[in-house]
Amino acid sequence: MTKYFASKDEKSAFATVTAGIIFSLSLSVPIVVFFFVFRSKLGFIFTDERCMDVLMIVLPGLIITSVYAVIRGFFWGKKSFLTYSLIELAEEAVMLVAGVVLIGAVTSKMSGVEKAAWAVLISYAFSFAAASAVFFIKDGRLISPKNTLKPLAKSSAPITGMRTATSLINSLIAIILPLRLISAGLTRTEAMAEFGAAFGMAIPILFMPATLIGSLAVVLVPELSENYYKNQKENLINNVERALKFSFFVACIIIPVLVSFGKNLGIFFYSSGEAGKYLTYAAPVMLPMSICMITTSMLNSLNCERKTLVFYLCGAAFMLACVFLLPRYIGVYSLIAGMLGQYLITAVLNYFAIRKKLGEKMYVNRFFLKAFLFMIPTILFGIMLNRILSAIVVNAVVCIAGSILTALFGFAFYPVFGMADFIRRSAPSADSKTPR
């Protein structure tokens, strides 16, 4: 989308939308038909066959959301962020309202689950209808996709492969790790309890930066693509540097909070000190993870989708090796070691690929080093604050007040040392010898 709009080729942009809809329908419709035709024979995929009834309710939403995703991509590529965001927000609001109304009349637990599924389907239909209406109101149209089918397939296939691999690998981890823990001497109950505390409780909290970095990526991807296809090299390098700094900054603000208050947060969210302990040890994963997330989006926006797939698979191979080999020695912490290695490998490969693509050095290393060092006094401050607060207030206050104060303490280093320039859009690079 961005490539065609940057070159003022609206015809190809609209043709790509048509091509995307064709691809989406060709993938989603057969899946939906298959499940409806063979419904009676597919109950084995669930441990509770009643789940099939719920799946049948939401399954048509696969077709709806597939087409909606293409139209949403049109808004994204055109940098219509307000339209994109309002429709997403409205979808959540419709789901909430429909859920409250429908669940208010339930007669049993299973009836409530099915009503919730209907609420999800209604929200999907709403976002599809709203996006389609706005698309055509804003002079969008569907035209022959003849010359855009191949370029779109070439661009989207690696990203589809990466997302599919992610789902499969997460499923493999959920199978392999408990089995390896059992072979290391744990009972089945102990293995599942440790896996649940680490994978189901601690790890999701690590993805907190994904909200901020994901929002940045939404804005950044079309911006970088436009810079790239218009050959605006100076703007491209500036945007890349600022995004890298912001992502590293977010991680360096949150990590001290998790290290200092991990156990408290585990008790606060899950009533589990064990989950909090895993969260404390897993906090460093957030650093390479943040860089990995933003650099993957960058490479995709710079027409390097194949590289992101290869780099992701390199990291994933390390993760699977850790989960298979290390439980005998470090137990469930093999998951944390695997994640740390996976994201570190992918982030480093992504970073050097971006440097090569830009053909010019990026001035971010000094920022990274200083931000990393800032975490040391921040962690010490957080630990001290935790001890003080824990002696005088309840755990909920410790978590909320302690997290906020520790984050503010860490943030204060950046303006004091003149490192807040990455927040301003047109700021010169703090590490460069010459202003950009």
Structural features, described:
This protein is mostly helical. It folds into two domains: 2-147, no CATH class; 154-423, no CATH class. The protein has 17 helices and no strands. The chain has helices spanning 2-6, 10-37, 51-58, 60-77, 81-103, 109-137, 149-183, 188-206, 209-229, 233-270, 273-282, 286-301, 305-325, 327-330, 333-358, 365-390, 395-416. Helix 9 packs parallel to helix 12, helix 10 runs parallel beside helix 16 (365-390) and helix 12 runs antiparallel to helix 13 (305-325). It is globular.
Write the layout of secondary structure elements.
Elements: H1 2-6, H2 10-37, H3 51-58, H4 60-77, H5 81-103, H6 109-137, H7 149-183, H8 188-206, H9 209-229, H10 233-270, H11 273-282, H12 286-301, H13 305-325, H14 327-330, H15 333-358, H16 365-390, H17 395-416
Helix pairs in contact: 2-4, 3-6, 4-6, 5-6, 7-8, 7-13, 8-11, 9-10, 9-12, 10-11, 10-12, 10-16, 10-17, 12-13, 12-15, 13-15, 16-17
Largest sheet: none
Secondary-structure content class: mainly alpha
Kindly state the number of beta strands: 0
Q: What characteristic shape results from the CA principal axes?
A: globular
Look at the structure and give the mean pLDDT: 87
* Number of H- or I-type helical stretches: 17
First-last Cα distance? 28 Å
Radius of gyration: 24 Å
Could you list the spans in which at least 5 consecutive residues all have pLDDT below 50?
425-436
User: Into how many domains do the coordinates divide?
Assistant: 2
Strand content: under 5%
H and E string: HHHHHHHHHHHHHHHHH
Estimated helix fraction: over 70%
